[in-house]
Design a protein that fits this description.
Blueprint lengths: L13 H4 L46 E9 L10 E5 L25 E5 L5 E7 L4 E2 L7 E2 L2 E6 L8 E6 L10 H4 L4 H5 L4 E2 L10 E4 L2 E2 L9
Parallel strand pairs: 1-10, 1-11
Antiparallel strand pairs: 1-4, 2-3, 2-7, 5-6, 7-8, 9-10
């Protein structure tokens, strides 16, 4: 098993979130179980939503990056026309959310959320800003490595996966209980994007590749 455990004491909030009783077995009802494709809200997904640097009147601060990859099923087949959503901090390590009180500056030109649909080959592509590390008070001197949250729908709501993408060579990996809660170095490696020189655009943005395989990419229990 490569998924993080529901209860990981070093990740303190799991003490409140993890189930304390055995699961109940419910009989599947074919009339009520979710078998249909996802519906993505009241509005169609606009192609401009995938560029997080063009959602406001000005340029956001920070290092511009391109994040792309493929969404695959467990057999390695592309999942077409499926929704990929991301959310993240700005370059200073702060979320554009009222609950985030980290004393780092907000960027009026960066909201930190985007979405797109995969193409016929299961590919997606985002343009964004490299997020910053931030403190999170889980333990003494606790800092989250730079990461981007991903939500991926398969062909049904029951296949939805929420995970995190990290950046190569981050010095905070050994100190992060969320990253370390994923058992085994091979599984943790699947959460780290690869630098992609082919996706890098000269004099404009570095590229990173992050492929997601439903059933193999570790999920986020947060």
């Amino acid at each position: 098993m490569t998924h993080p455990p529901y209860l990981s004491p070093a990740y303190r909030s799991t003490l409140l979130r993890a189930p304390s009783r055995p699961p109940l077995l419910l009989k599947a009802d074919p009339d009520t179980i979710e078998l249909t494709s996802p519906v993505f809200g009241h509005h169609e997904v606009d192609e401009h939503e995938a560029d997080l640097t063009r959602q406001h009147s000005g340029e956001p601060l920070g290092e511009r990056i391109i994040v792309s990859g493929r969404i695959l099923d467990a057999a390695g087949r592309p999942i077409r026309n499926t929704l990929v959503e991301i959310w993240q901090t700005n370059a200073a390590g702060r979320y554009a959310h009222p609950v985030d009180r980290h004393p780092a500056p907000l960027d009026p030109n960066f909201t930190g959320a985007g979405r797109c649909l995969t193409d016929d080959d299961g590919r997606y592509r985002f343009v964004t800003i490299k997020p910053g590390a931030y403190p999170w008070r889980n333990h003494h001197n606790a800092w989250r490595p730079a990461h981007i949250h991903f939500s991926v729908f398969g062909t049904a709501f029951t296949q939805r996966l929420v995970t995190q993408m990290y950046f190569p060579g981050d010095p905070l990996f050994p100190f992060d209980p969320i990253f370390q809660s994923v058992p085994g170095p091979a599984a943790r490696e699947r959460l780290i994007a690869a630098f992609d020189i082919d996706a890098t655009e000269p004099e404009w943005a570095l590229g990173y590749r992050f492929d997601v395989t439903l059933g193999r990419t570790p999920v986020e229990d947060s």
